[in-house]
Each structure stands twice: as C-alpha cells, then as structure tokens.
Amino acid sequence: MRKVLIVLAIMLTVSMPVNAAKLPDNVQNFVKEAFPETDFRFDGVVILPDNTVYLPLIPSKFNNSETITIKSTIPAGKTMAQKPDAVILSNDYVLLKMITNNKGKNTVIDLPAPPLELRTGLLPQDMLVPKNLIIPSSLKNIIGNLNIQTSKDTGLVIPVAQPKTGAVVNSLTLTPVLKDKVMYIASNASKNIQVVTPERKIASYALAQDDIPISIKGYEGFLLVTSYGKKSLDVISLADEKVIKEISFKTQPEEIIIDKKNKIAYISSGEDASMYVISLETMTIKKQIRLNGMCEKVTLSDDGTKLFYNDKQTREVWAVELDNDYLLKEIGKFPNVSKIAYVNGKIYLTSRTKNRLAIIDYETMGLMSENEISDKPVDMFAYKDTLFILSAGNKSIDLIDTTIDKLTGTIELTQNQFPTKITPIENSNLALITDAKAGVYSILNLDQKKIVQTNQLEIPVGTIYVTNKIKKIGTAK
Asked: How far is the CA of 183 from the CAs of 193, 320, 464, in angstroms?
C-alpha cells in the first residue's frame, strides 16, 4: 500500500504542473526584467516584443524558491537580454528559443547530450505548438502527448477568390491610423470570418468556421467567437490562426463584452439566464452570474462596476452591480430596447420602434426625460460628453450632449443603405459605421463629429473587430 501511495505522489508531482500552462509569476517577472513588453500566452508560449518565441519546459519537480536566477544558458555565459537558445533557471524551468534551421524550418537547439533539465522537462500539454515545428531526436521526450502541426495543416486559413482588377478601395491619406490595421469581419453572407486590410474591398483570406458567428471580440492577439447552434466559445490565436481553446457552456453563449482593465470577458447566455465571467489571462470560466430573464443588449459601464441588459421576453431592463455582490436592480419596462448606455450616473435607452431616447437617473431609478430621435435607432456609443445614436431609418447619427441631454446636431450617412453598428477603433478617436445589408463602411471622427471617409467592401458587416496587424509565429523569419 505504501508503494502505491508513493507512486501516486510521484505521478501527481509530475502531471499537475505539465497541464498548468501559465508560467509562475516569478518566471514571468524574470523575463520582463529584460523584455518588459513580453506576451505570456495563456497556453505557455512566450513571445518577446520582436516576435522571438520561447517554449517553456516545465520541470518534473518544482523548486519553490521565490528568487529566480539563471543556472546556465546555451551558449554558456549569456544573459536573458542576449536571447540565448536555451535558458535553464534556478527553479529548473527551461526556456527554449524557437530558431530557424538551414532549411528554413522552425526548430529548437539540437544537442548531442542535453542537460538533465532539458531531458526531464515537458512542454505544457495544452500548448498550441507552432506550425511545422521540428523537435530534434535528442529532445523527443519533451513532446509528451502534444500534437505537432505539419506544413499540410493550414489551420483555419482558407483562400478567398481575388479579382484581377478593382481590388483597391480608397486612399488612406485621410485616415492614416488604419494603415497598419486589419479587420476581422463576421457577416450573415458567410459563416467564415473575413480578414480584410482597410485599403482593399476584398478579403485577403478567411478563417473557416463551422457555424455562423453571433459575436466576435478581440483581446491581445486573440479572437473570441460565439456561434449559432454551438455550446462553446472559440478562442482563436491570431498569431497562429488556429483555435487554441474551446470553452464549453451548458447552453449557447451569445454576446461578448470585454473588460480590458480587469482582464475579463462577460459572456451572456439568454437561454441559461446567465452571465459568465471569463478570465482573459487563463481563458477559463471564473464565475456564473444568475440573472432574471433572457439577457440581451448587454452593456458594461466604463468603470467596469455595472452591467446592464434587456430581458427579451418581458422587455424589462436590469442592472447588475458587479462590485456589490452581483446585486440585481430592476430599471423598468421599455418597448423594443435597441441599445443601452450609461454615462455619469444616467442610463440611456433607445427604442427601435418608438424612436425615443429615455434617460433614467440610476440613483432614484426615476425617468428624467424622454426625447424624440431619428427613425429606427439601432446603436449608440458614448464618447466624452457626446452620445452618438445611429439610426437606420434616417441613415444618420444624432448627437446628444450628455451634460444637458439635448440634441445638438445630426450627421447624415448618405452612402449607407442600412447602417447597423458603431464600432470604435481602439486607441484612436475614430469609429466605423458598418452596414448589415450593403458592403460599405464609413469612418467617423468622434472629435470632429463628422464622416471623414467611406469605403467599399465585398460583403456586408455583422460584427467587426479592428486591430493592429498581428505578427505570425510558426513561420520562418
């Protein structure tokens, strides 16, 4: 019996760390001393700011010392800042640099007699291995049960037919901020996610999907996707263009709200009357918040303390106080709510059929005013002291000054056939006005309160995510 217990203890010691892909904080801090902007992916891959990739080897036995130093490097005598081919740390963790061999293939250092730490360490077993990685025979033991991708494995990438002429849209001289951006577009015209550069109207390629996406949101090089008929959330690594993880739910997940400040995502499920809290650092479910009714039109306050949603069955609007033990507060019943916003202690609600904007004081839950707005309001976005209300019927944007709650102007959208969404571009004063029926989008300058450019697309837009161009890993440099 004692022997069995010893064997079990050894197995637990070996197996538990291998599946824990997140590197210990002291290892991360050690790397950050040399490279502060390092990206530590939740699956274990370490990506330096210049796109140098290190693969971690998790030791079979942990050394819990808090202070991390270098035990040895290959080549010998190097510092982390010099990016050696292998770094053996004082707690026996190993960082293996992905290098390119003389045939242009990705690999790691090949040693005739690898040190003990390399021979006994294992790659995280839930890690997405960079495509076409060659592991030398002397280090085959580090693979474990990992599936190594081959050059035939194209991931999610599928080609899009390119026309011989007419692919270029407009000059980006008026909107230089878009020059190094890429747009990921989900459309009811295709179940695949189109990958488009702003200067072209045709997608460069697409990311294959089995089902039509409901929502797509991005975070730090990852794309989160919910789809119709699918009881899971896909996490796509944009650097690898592969599904790196599937997060399962009891029912179909729907809307995705990203809270970058707190590094969490809120995933709604109307069927389950729940909001799920996802850690964006580990891509795991942290909590299930029970709600009243079938939630939709979910909005997060700027400070991350409150969630608002509409019950699609009863038409009641609710608030969830995230910093108050998830207390539910009923705001009231409103007809055909199309969007909810929260600014300076006031709740703004648009009614798609009544063409009205209701303003509620959050403290008293009393109606402050109700204003007439343009026909068929479909979306709303708060920026500084202005509320931008997009109306599909009038093809226009109403401007509401939130300090006095009065209409101060209207922006006409003459080229849009049926505008449906306002999507801000992160770290800029621009937003995209997209169309669910026509292949067109307008670029709105939020400070100037005017449309500065309108571009064509081959497909209409359901949901769009705009980000900087992602450096690909797993390809020869």
From this structure: 10, 32, 7
Q: Judge whether 209 and 227 are in contact, CB under 8 Å.
A: yes
DSSP 209: -
How far is CA 20 from each of CA 13, 84, 122, 195, 240, rounded to the nearest angstrom? 12, 25, 11, 32, 21
The confidence score (pLDDT) of residue 146 equals 78
Nearest to 115 by CA among 96, 99, 98: 96
Report the relative pairing of strands 463-468 and 386-391 from DSSP bridges: unpaired
Domain ranges of the chain: 2-142, 157-468
Using CA atoms, how far apart are residues 464 and 218, in angstroms rounded to an integer? 10
Question: Which of 108, 111, 81 has the alpha carbon at shortest distance from 97?
Answer: 108
Quote the CA–CA distance of 266 and 249 in Å, as a whole number.
Answer: 13
Q: Which of 351, 356, 327, 348 minimizes the C-alpha distance to 337? A: 351
Number of neighbours of residue 96 by Cβ within 10 angstroms: 25
Q: Is the pLDDT higher at 425 or at 144?
A: 425
Residue 8: pLDDT above 50?
no
Give me the residues paired with residue 46 across strands. 40, 54
Q: What is the CATH number of domain 157-468?
A: 2.130.10.10
Encode pLDDT of 395-440 as tens digits.
Answer: 999 999 999 999 999 999 976 678 999 999 999 999 999 998 888 9
Q: Is 230 helix (H, G, I), strand (E, B) or coil?
A: coil
The answer to whether the CB of 64 falls within 8 A of the CB of 91 is yes
pLDDT of residue 456: 87
pLDDT digit string, tens, across residues 174-232: 788 888 899 999 998 889 999 999 888 899 999 999 999 999 999 999 999 999 999 99
